[in-house]
Amino acid sequence: MLPEIVKEQVSYACGTEPCTVNKTGEWRFLTPGKAERPSPCNQGCLLDGEIPAWLEAVKLERWEEAWQIMSRRNPFPALTGYVCFHPCTENCNRGQLDRDIEIPAVEKAIGQWRLDHYKPKVKALTAKGRVAIVGSGPAGMSCAYYLNEAGYEVTVFEREKVIGGMFTLGIPEYRLPRRVLKKELDLLESEGIKFRTGCNIGSDIRLSELYAEFDEVFLASGAWKPRRAGISGEDSSGAWNALDFLKAVNSSSSPAIADPVVVIGGGNAAVDSARSALRLNGVNHVTLIYRRSRAEMPAGQVEVEAAEHEGVELICNALPREIEEDGQAVKSILLDHCKTSLEGLAIDRSRAFSKTCGTVIMALGQERDYTLFDTLEKSSVLFAGGDLISGPATVPEAINAGRNAAMAIMAKIEGLPGPGLPAAEQSPVKFEELNLGAKMNLQLQDVQADPSAEASRCLGCGTCNTCGICYLFCPDMAVDVVDGRYEFNLDYCKGCGICFKECPSRALAMEGGR
Amino acid sequence: MKTDIMNHESEMLYAGHNACPGCGAALAVRYLTRALGPDLALVLTASCWSIITGMPPLTALKCPILHCPFPSAGSVGSGVRRGLNAKGQYDTTVVVLAGDGGTFDIGLQALSGAAQRNEDYMFVCYDNEAYMNTGMQTSSATPFGARTATAPYPLFKEGQKKDIMQIMAAHSIPYAATATVAFPEDMERKLKKAREIRGFRFIHILSPCPPGWGTESSDTIHLSRQAVATGFFPLYEIINGVSWKMTCQPEGKRLPLKEYLSGQRRFKQMEDVRIEALQEEVDHDWEVLLKRIEASK
Ligand SMILES: Cc1cc2nc3c(=O)[nH]c(=O)nc-3n(C[C@H](O)[C@H](O)[C@H](O)COP(=O)(O)OP(=O)(O)OC[C@H]3O[C@@H](n4cnc5c(N)ncnc54)[C@H](O)[C@@H]3O)c2cc1C
Ligand SMILES: Cc1ncc(C[n+]2csc(CCOP(=O)(O)OP(=O)(O)O)c2C)c(N)n1
Ligand code: SF4
Ligand code: SF4
Ligand code: SF4
Ligand SMILES: [Mg+2]
What we know:
- The complex is a heterodimer.
- By secondary structure, chain A is of the alpha/beta class.
- Chain A has 20 helices and 20 strands.
- Chain A has 4 domains: 18-36 and 466-512, Alpha-Beta Plaits (2-Layer Sandwich); 40-118 and 429-455, Alpha-helical ferredoxin (Fumarate Reductase Iron-sulfur Protein, Chain B, domain 2); 130-223 and 381-414, 3-Layer(bba) Sandwich (FAD/NAD(P)-binding domain); 232-366, 3-Layer(bba) Sandwich (FAD/NAD(P)-binding domain), CATH 3.50.50.60.
- By secondary structure, chain B is of the alpha/beta class.
- Chain B has one domain: Thiamin diphosphate (ThDP)-binding fold, Pyr/PP domains (Rossmann fold, 3-Layer(aba) Sandwich), CATH 3.40.50.970.
- Chain B has helices spanning 24-36, 48-53, 73-86, 100-105, 108-116, 164-170, 184-195, 210-213, 220-229, 257-262, 272-295, and strands spanning 40-45, 58-59, 65-68, 93-99, 122-127, 175-180, 201-206, 236-239, 243-246.
- The chains are: A alpha/beta, B alpha/beta.
- At the A-B interface, strand 1, helix 17, helix 19 and helix 20 of A face helix 1, strand 2 and helix 9 of B.
- Strand 1 (17-18) of chain A pairs parallel with strand 2 (58-59) of chain B, so a sheet runs across the interface.
- Residues 460, 464-470, 486, 503, 505, 507-508 of chain A line the site of one iron/sulfur cluster.
- One iron/sulfur cluster is lined by residues 39-41, 51-52, 55, 92-94, 101, 103, 458-461 of chain A.
C-alpha cells in the first residue's frame, strides 16, 4: 500500500501512482553539495563583506535578508557606499564580459533600506556588561554597534562637540551627504548607545577612571596629530593644518581664508582640503602641490581628477622650503623642484620658485597620538583599534577593527573563546573558471536599472547566486525549489554531477559516496 | 532567468524514475512534457523511456502513456488523435515519443505514412544514436566511426548517420525542428510553436547517453552544447519542408569536431583519417544547410 502522502500527489494520469516511492538516491555514487569559494570582489573587500551573498539577496529583493548579511560585517553600508574606496570593484569578473557590477550602488541601497526601515528592538532589562568606548569615529561606532546589538550597555566618550570622527569632521559634505550621516548617527543613539560629547579622555576624565567604572574600555581615538613640515612660517596666521581646516569647514563655521590658496600634500586630506577650499566664499584660486609625481599621489585618481575638473591647479614634483610672511600674514610660498629617485627625494635647489598665496594648508599626513595612554595606570588587557593603532588607514579597516574589538570584549566578559584564526585562504574564482557555457541559458544582458537588476548581473563567483541552472539541468528532479532558492533532495539525487559541472558560479562540489 | 522552463509548477516528470545518472533522454522528456502539458497524451515505443517510466502502476510522468509495438508508432499516433477527436477532446496534445531505433529504422514506414497523410499530431524522436535499451547496438542514427555492441573494436560504424530531417522535409510537413538538452529554452519555444500548428509535426532531439556513449554522467549538457557548437547537430526548424531557419547558434566560429569526439569512449582510438572524414561530412552538411537557409530567405 502506498502511504497517504504519496496518494495525494497522484495525478490525472490513468490509474497510476507517481514513481516518487522509488528512492533512487540510493544509487548515488557521488554527492553534490554547496562548496563556496572566495570571489575576486570579496578578496578585495577590506571587510571580507560577503558581497556575492548580499548581491544575491538584493537580486531576490529580500532587503531584510540583505541587511542581515551585510551587517554581519558592515553595519554602516549607507556610509561606506559613499566613502569606501571600493577595492572590491577592481577585479570584478563580470567586467570581463561587459561591465563591472556597481557594488557601491547596491551597497548604498541596502544602507538606505536600513535607514528607512529601522525599528527599535526591545532590549533586555539587564545588560550583559558595561563598556566604555573612547572616540566616536568609524572604529568606535562599529564596536558600539556590535556590543549594543549583543545586549551590552555602551557609552561612547567623544572629545569634540559632535560625534562621527572623520565621518563628521574630516570627510567633506560633497562626498558624504550630511542627511545620510545624520540619520545613521541618530539611529545609533535611538538604538540605546549613550554618547558623551565634549569629554576629553585623559584631561576631563582619566583613563584609569574609565577602567574603574566600566567592565571594559575600547580605545579608538584615531590619528589626529598633524605631521609638521618643520619649515619657517608654518605657524603664521593664514597657515593651517588640513585637519583643523576641514574640521572648521565641516563644523559649518565657514572659515574666512584669504585667496589664493595653496594646499601641500597628495593624500585624501590634501585633495579634500583643496576641493573644500574652492567651495568657500571669496576663494577663486586653489593650487595643490605635491612633492612626487602625479601617479604617486596616495589619493584616489578619481578624487584627483574631480579636483582638477572643478578647477584646482595641480603642481607635482615641488617641495615647500619656506612660507614667506608679510608681517603676520602669509604672502607666498617658496618651493624647490624635486623628483623621486632611488635614494628617495632628490631636491634641486637651483630650480626654486615662489607662489603667491594668502593661505597655506598643510596636509602632510597625521600621526598616532599616544598621550592618552600616559594616564593609564594598569590594565592587563587593552582593547584598542582603528587609526590609533594602524596609523591613518581607511573607514572599512576602522569598522573591521571595531567589530573585532567587540567580539574580543564579548569573549572576555562572557568567557567564550575569542575570534578564531581566519580560515585558510582559498584562491578566488577566476573568470576562466566560471561556466559561461551556460551563458546562453542565463541571458546575461547588460541591463542597468534598479539595484536589484544591477545585483542580478552578478555572476556569483564561488557563491550560489540562485541562477537556477542546477535545477534546470538536473535529470532527476533532485533539486528542489525552496522559498525561491535551490536545495538538493538527496532522496532522488543519483550523483550524476551535472549540477556541479554546469553551475556557472562554481559554487558546488561533489563528494565521494553517499 | 525568466523562462517558463524555470517554472517548477509546470513540471510533469516525477523524481524517482529509472533513468541512468546523467540521462539526456530523461531531460529531453522533462522539457517536452512541461512545455506541452498538462493536457497531453503520449504514445511510446519500446525504448529506454519504457524503462525510465517503469512498470505500472508506477509512472514517471503526470500524463497518460500508451505503449505500442515498435513499427506501429506512426499509426497508433494517428489513431489516438482521431479517437480523441471523436470524443471531442480536440485540445489534448498528442505526442508520439520514440527513440532513434523506433524512428530512423523500425518505425520509419509508419512514420512516413502518417507524415504523408499529414496526420494532426507531433512525432518526437529522442536520439541517443543507438539501440541503447537492448545494449547499445548500432542504429542508422549512429554516427560514422562510433563503436557499438554490434561494431566492437576494431570495428566501427560504417556509413553516415541517416539524415532524418531531410526525409521529413521531403514529406513537406508543416513543421520540423531539431533541439537538444543544453538549450531548453530553444526546445521549449519550438515545442510550443509546434503545438499551435495543425497537421504533422516532427521534432528531433539529440539526447546524450552516458553509458552508451562512454561519457561522464556530468558531461551530458556540456556534450549537447558542443554538438551544437561544432555544427555536428545544428539547431534549426523547417516550415512546410521548404523554409529553413537556424534558431540558436553560439557566437563565433564552429569548434573543431575533435573537441566533441574526444570526451566520448565510443570514438576512442578513432584514426585521424576517420575523424577528418567525419569532419568533412559535418562541414559538407553545414554548407548544405546554410545554402538551404539562404535560399529560403
Ligand atoms: C580628510 C580625510 C578624508 C578621508 N576620506 C576617507 C574616505 O573617503 N574613505 C575612507 O575609507 N577613509 C577615509 N579617510 C580615513 C578614515 O577617515 C579613517 O581611517 C577613519 O576615520 C579612522 O577611524 P577611527 O575611528 O579609528 O578614527 P577617527 O575617525 O579619527 O575617530 C576618532 C575619534 O576619537 C576622538 N578622540 C580623539 N582623542 C580623544 C580623546 N582623548 N577623548 C575622546 N575622544 C577622542 C576624535 O575626536 C574622533 O572623533 C579619510 C581621512 C581623512 C583625514
Ligand atoms: C518489435 C520489437 N523488437 C525488438 C524489441 C526490443 N527492444 C526494446 S527497446 C529496443 C531498443 C530501442 O532503441 P531506440 O528506439 O533507439 O530507443 P533507446 O532504447 O535507444 O532509447 C529494442 C530493440 C521490442 N521491444 N519490440
Ligand atoms: S561578478 Fe559578482 S561575485 Fe563576481 S567579482 Fe563581480 S561582484 Fe563579485
Ligand atoms: S547552478 Fe546557480 S542556483 Fe545552482 S548552485 Fe550554482 S549558482 Fe546556485
Ligand atoms: S544534477 Fe541532479 S542527480 Fe545529478 S548530481 Fe546534481 S542533483 Fe544529483
Ligand atoms: Mg536510441
